[in-house]
Write a structure and sequence with these properties.
The chain has 287 residues and is an alpha+beta fold. The chain has nine helices and eleven strands. Strand 9 and strand 10 form a beta hairpin.
Length: 287
């Protein structure tokens, strides 16, 4: 994401623009102020210079869809969407302004969480994933860059930019996302279901526990080959202090075939909770 200095709007709808936070592939994000609630917010919109382009219109459609998908969500581990509006054909969504940093930045600067804290973080992520799946939505881009650690030690899932409805007739992957965190079926362009999100969460857990990526690489073909054909080394072999029960949990969670994984977020969560409580882990993939 690249910060740029250009002529900025001073207002969108009723919201005062304070500053540009960043520009990403899917649009611009500003810090703003809601004069009615006096609340600082994040405002995501489309670059007006792209509105006349076909790609810009795709972003407009995507932003509208994003607002419909999770506009009614209310969960402590999911960023809150406050409002959606369009002004002169330019849509924008108004989001909770999060104070903290992404898990990606934490990992890049070498922050270590310890295995219990790592598992606790993932349990909270699975609570959020279970909530969205129950409401018929798949995130499809779960990765450290889309997990925000807040200053009050909360954690939130962000960025529903490529999310989709479960069981929609056209839910086929177009290899959108970050390859090292995508499921095999997502990389292969197969039809997707919620188990793809669970694979991505497992990849993040592996990285938290070991300090290395489950499927490393700098080139997409090499990363794809690892995701599709190779299993990462058991975590306890890289970090001997880790409970071997975590090896068993991740062996299931990172299975190449969706049918061999945990079939929902609650089963994944229960297995991790058993590890935390020191109980024998009976890995059950289905109810």
């Amino acid at each position: 994401m690249v910060t740029v200095s250009t002529m900025e709007p001073t207002q969108l709808g009723r919201y005062q623009i304070i500053k540009r936070l960043y520009q990403g592939a899917s649009g611009l994000v500003y810090e703003g102020l809601d004069p009615e609630s006096h609340r600082r917010v994040a405002i995501k919109t489309v670059d007006p210079g792209r509105l006349a382009e076909e790609s810009g219109q795709r972003l407009v459609s995507r932003l509208r869809y994003e607002a419909r998908l999770f506009g009614s969500f209310s969960h402590p581990n999911i960023v809150t969407l406050y409002d959606y509006h369009e002004e002169e054909g330019r849509p924008f969504i108004v989001l909770e302004l999060l104070q903290g940093e992404t898990l990606k930045k934490c990992l890049e600067r070498g922050l270590s969480f310890g295995w219990r804290a790592s598992v606790d973080l993932i349990i909270r992520m699975l609570d959020a994933v279970s909530y969205m799946h129950t409401r018929g939505v798949m995130h499809l881009d779960l990765k450290p860059a889309n997990m925000m650690l807040l200053d009050d030690d909360q954690v939130k899932v962000t960025d529903f930019g490529i999310a989709q409805r479960i069981n929609a007739p056209d839910i086929w992957s177009s290899i959108t996302g970050t390859p090292g965190y995508m499921s095999p079926e997502q990389l292969m362009g197969h039809r997707l279901d919620p188990r793809s999100d669970l694979f991505s969460v497992a990849v993040v857990l592996y990285e938290l526990l070991t300090g290395v990526q489950a499927f490393p690489g700098k080139q997409v073909p090499g990363i794809m080959q690892r995701v599709l054909n190779l299993s990462p080394q058991p975590p306890s072999q890289l970090q001997p202090h880790l409970p071997t029960a975590l090896d068993a949990v991740l062996r299931v969670a990172l299975a190449k075939q969706p049918a061999d994984r945990f079939q929902d977020a609650n089963l994944f969560r229960s297995a991790l909770q058993q590890v935390v409580e020191g109980q024998p882990v009976g890995v059950v993939v289905t109810h």
